[in-house]
Amino acid sequence: MHRKRDVISIAVIGVIVIAGILAVVLIPTFSNRNETLRIVLPNQGQIGADKVDISRENRSYASKVELTPDNVRQVLATLMTPDEYIKSAAVTFYYGESSSVMSVRSWVSGLNCRCSVSGTAEKEKLLTERSYYCWDKGERRYYAGPRGEKDIEDISLTPDWRELLSADTAQILSAEFANVDQNPVIIMTWRDSETGGEWSFTVSIDVGLLVSASLSEEGKTVYSMETSVLEVTSPPDGTFTLPDGSAPY
User: Fold this and answer.
1) 183 in a domain, yes or no?
2) This prediction's pTM
């Protein structure tokens, strides 16, 4: 646990990876959002009799909760999440007066995840239950190695918000229900007492997934992530194949 948090902290400082912004910036108007958040849910005809309507269950649960900084961890942990989805997001790294924007598209199915990253780097990344693959776009050759501790958040340049919030050093500053582009969400801000960084997470109630995040250090934003589209659907056939056409192992 502490090992992974140390790795995350180093990545934020060196390569800049991961998490939240000051609540005062995001909560009142969301005027800093460059993208309109669109969440595409399956219609009733697409939800089989043996499937749970995640959006309905989550909204029902949230409607009965009086959200506070004291219970927000429990509320977030209770929200259900889909096994399969496709997500498009913009990730921005800030270096002093400069910034770098990465476009990240993710396809998720259970433990399998593929991410296409465009921007200063053009990479394709693939996680399976046991393995990790990475290659340059347009190339047939690829790197293959063990999955190890890598997860979906790692390859999509997204904070592992559930693990971060479980840290003893996470001090919750605020938590509230809100609407972003007519999507019900939970917005929470917190401070890491160890690093001094202040974070903000916006989690969709409909799908229980992180849709925006940012990190501020010494009053300056160093990282932000904004989702533009999140569609609850199965990735297309062939999504989890390698660039030479072979199947991963």
Assistant:
1) yes
2) 0.83
